[in-house]
Structure formats: structure tokens, C-alpha cells
Design goal:
- By secondary structure, the chain is of the alpha+beta class.
- Helix content is 26%, strand content 26%.
- It has 10 helices and 18 strands.
- Strand 4 and strand 5 (92-101) form a beta hairpin.
- The longest helix is centred in the first third of the chain and has 16 residues, at 37-52.
Length: 384
């Protein structure tokens, strides 16, 4: 079974007034700044929080309920719906509605049920919560919380662990990554510092585990480490190898060896683009990729040739993680297939709509133009 989910619907979340996203293994969202691409990543982040018991904290970090609701003077609820893939067992649909209450929120509705269940029927639901009324169903029995139930956190996050179907779904939603976006490559940035030797499975959203992750991959998954070095060599033909010289107090650093130089380069000496490329390549080859991986603007500081390599690695990684990627770079779009590109536009009401590029009539156009040229010329949308 492929990782991730088949559909996400969003209502009343910032500019996302009413958006239905039919998801694929690799989903690259293209559109101008302010159209709502980052809000889609934040919606996934909110869902992960809903499953891990961190909803209240995440709502606060995102600015609170009032800042999240669509500002049309009438929206009072934020509504998210998530569906598993059709071949999942069981095939489930999750529905959560957060309603403004004063400056805060209440979870006014939360349902987890088999997809396609009859409307209004609660019989087959695994979770059926309406405000203060919370019900779990398992093996034909109905139970209500007899513990210190937290009403600002979801029923999903507090589901009894022995409820197999509900707990399995909760783990899948919880297994959505943090958002990988701007990497701090200043001289004091974590990615440039020596790192403690530890077994880590991803490089970290801020690069704080990049060196440790690379070291772990080299020691435990040699084929993946060789794939990382192959990608680096394809981008930097004079590159030779990576080493990890030890420092004091159990720390190591990264040594970048290059043909024509007798001494290696260390992270504090590598360029911004080099570090960001190394970070992304390591992420996409990581053994610890989540069910869904969120990446914002992978094109920052990267040469187009590096973006070609990143695109190839994303395709390979999408067999192990569902990738949701936001971009506004025509250089990145150049290397994508129409089936990997979701075009985001503002609609007449200022909200967002999204359409897969392969659903557009582009066959004749693509005989004479590349996909990035069609985007830059406004043929496929994503420019308003």
C-alpha cells in the first residue's frame, strides 16, 4: 500500500475557503505568493497536531483561531477532512470542525468512519464527537471517556490504544513531518556546527541533525549513503567523498573532500546552496521518512541542475513517503511531469482552487513548449 492519503478537503482556513485536494505520491503545488500554498502545509501540520495531542499549542503557534479563519465576515468554523487510500484496510474518512468561541475554539464535531458510510448513520463510526459528547466504537460496543478527557484536544489523540483501527489511523496522521523550509545557513546556524554522535533518522528541519544523520546512514544503510554521494558528485563533479572526523566531547563534524584540494572543507566553509542541497538529498534518502513529508520552497539557493537531481530523488522517495511540496519556481517546474504538478490559482472570491496539470489540455502545447514555459506564460494558470 502506498504511503499517505488520497484526499484532503479544507474549509474556512485563511485563503482556503473551499479546497478539495486529490492527493498523489508526489504533489508539487505551484502558484504565486499569497495564493495559499503554505496554508496547505499548515493544514497538514494542524492535522498532525490533532493526532498527537498538541492541537492547542499548534493553534497558538499559528496565531490562534481568529487569525486562522477565512476573513470574509461570516466564517466561524475551520473544517478539515482527510481520507485514506481506497486500498487501505479499513478505508477511512476523518472529519474535524473547529468553531470559534470567544478568542478560542471548541471542537464542535469530530468523526472517524469507514469511507462511504451512510450520511447521518453513527452505527459504523469509530469516533463520534459532538462538543462535550464523545463516543468511541469498537467491536460493536460504544464507550465514553472515563479518564481526564481534554476537550481542547481531539478524540483521535485520546483514543484507547487497544482500538486497533482508530489507533492505526491516529498513528498515520501523527506521522506527518514538520515543514522543511528555510534552512538557517548563517555562521551560527545549527547546520554549520559540530554535532553529537547519535542515531538519528532525519537531518532535522533546521539541519541540527544533518551530520549525525549522514553518519548514521553511512553506518547502517551503506547503499543510501552511496546514493547521497552519487547525487553530490552529479551536482559537483570535483566532489570526492564525505568523512566525519571526531571532535571533543563525543562530537563529530563533516569533512567535504574535493579533487584539487589537499585539505577538506568543513560546514562553516561550505556555501549556502551546497549545504541546502546536502540537507535535501539527505532528507530524501533518510530511512526515517514520515508517512507524509512537507517541503516548502526546495528551490531556494539551488542551481537548476541541482533541482533536476532533487526532482529525481523526490520521485524515488515518493514510494516511501507522500511528498507535499510548495514552490513558485519555474526552474523547478521544468523537471516535473504534469502528473506531479498541482496548479494553484485565486478564484473570483479571493480563495484558492487547485487543479492537476495533467487534467488540463496540454498535449499539443507540450509538443512545442516545456512545462515551465507554459507556466511562466500563464497557459496553465498559477500566475494570479
Amino acid at each position: 500500500m502506498m504511503p499517505g492519503f488520497s484526499r484532503l478537503s479544507i474549509r474556512g482556513f485563511r485563503r482556503l475557503k473551499n479546497v478539495d485536494l486529490h492527493l498523489r505520491p508526489l504533489n508539487v503545488l505551484i502558484g504565486v505568493n499569497g495564493v495559499g500554498k503554505s496554508s496547505i502545509l499548515d493544514a497538514f501540520d494542524l492535522l498532525a497536531a490533532s493526532a498527537s495531542g498538541n492541537l492547542a499549542t499548534t493553534m497558538s503557534d499559528l496565531g490562534g483561531m481568529n487569525s486562522l479563519l477565512t476573513r470574509d465576515g461570516k466564517t466561524t468554523s475551520l473544517h478539515l477532512q482527510l481520507r485514506t487510500h481506497a486500498d487501505a484496510t479499513p478505508n477511512l474518512a476523518y472529519d474535524i470542525r473547529l468553531t470559534r468561541q470567544g478568542y478560542g475554539y471548541v471542537i464542535s464535531e469530530e468523526v472517524l468512519e469507514p469511507y462511504g458510510a451512510p450520511s447521518g448513520s453513527a452505527t459504523g463510526r469509530y469516533i463520534d464527537s459532538r462538543g462535550a459528547i464523545v463516543e468511541y466504537r469498537h467491536d460493536g460496543t460504544v464507550s465514553t471517556p472515563d479518564w481526564d478527557y481534554k476537550h481542547l484536544e481531539t478524540s483521535l489523540s485520546q483514543t484507547p490504544k487497544m482500538y486497533r483501527e482508530t489507533e492505526g489511523f491516529r498513528r498515520s496522521v501523527e506521522d506527518i513531518s514538520e515543514i522543511y523550509h528555510g534552512l538557517d545557513v548563517s555562521q551560527n546556524g545549527p547546520v554549520r556546527q559540530p554535532q553529537v554522535v547519535s542515531s538519528v533518522s532525519t537531518p532535522g528541519v533546521d539541519g541540527a541533525n544533518l551530520v549525525s544523520c549522514l553518519y548514521t546512514i553511512r553506518e547502517t544503510a551503506r547503499d543510501r549513503f552511496e546514493a547521497i554521494e552519487d547525487a553530490i558528485h552529479a551536482a559537483f563533479p570535483t566532489f570526492e567523498r564525505l568523512d566525519f572526523p571526531p571532535l571533543s566531547a563525543g562530537r563529530i563534524t563533516l569533512a567535504w573532500h574535493e579533487h584539487g584540494f589537499t585539505e577538506p572543507f568543513f560546514p562553516n566553509e561550505l556555501s549556502e546552496g551546497t549545504l541546502r542541497f546536502l540537507w535535501l538529498v539527505t532528507l530524501l534518502q533518510s530511512p526515517g521518512l514520515r508517512e507524509i513529508t512537507l517541503i516548502d520552497e526546495p528551490e531556494v539557493s539551488l542551481h537548476p541542475e541541482m533541482l533536476r537531481l532533487i526532482t529525481e530523488l523526490m520521485r524515488e522517495a515518493s514510494a516511501r513517503t507522500q511528498l507535499i511540496v510548495a514552490t513558485h519556481s519555474d526552474s523547478f517546474v521544468r523537471f516535473l511531469e504534469p502528473s506531479e504538478l498541482m496548479v494553484c490559482d485565486k478564484d473570483d472570491d479571493g480563495g484558492m482552487n487547485a487543479e492537476w496539470a495533467d487534467k488540463l489540455d496540454l498535449k499539443d502545447w507540450l509538443e512545442d513548449y516545456t512545462l515551465d514555459q507554459l507556466w511562466s506564460q500563464g497557459v496553465i494558470g498559477g500566475r494570479s
